[in-house]
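User: My collaborator sent over this chain with a note saying "see what the structure looks like." That's all I know about it. Can you take a look?
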Amino acid sequence: MQLILLSPTKTLFDGEIDSVTIPGTKGLFTVLPHHAPLITTTEKGTITYKTIDGEHNIQVSDGFAEIKNNIVSICIEKLMVE
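Assistant: Without extra context I'll predict from the sequence alone. Here is the result:
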């Protein structure tokens, strides 16, 4: 599964992942391979994604996410810690 994590100024991450946990407006949710298509808004919080190298966390503001065909695209307004 591929994660593309974007801010208005740069690509924060673009690579293969095993899973990603996203702070949705209705609570945290985890995306695994073959997740159903979804477009949703996100809230300020921590995005956690797992790669072959381990678990990674990034503090973000609100934004939106699209899940389709094993690609998770997340656009955030800004990083909370740079």
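A starting point for your reply to your collaborator: The chain has no helices and nine strands.
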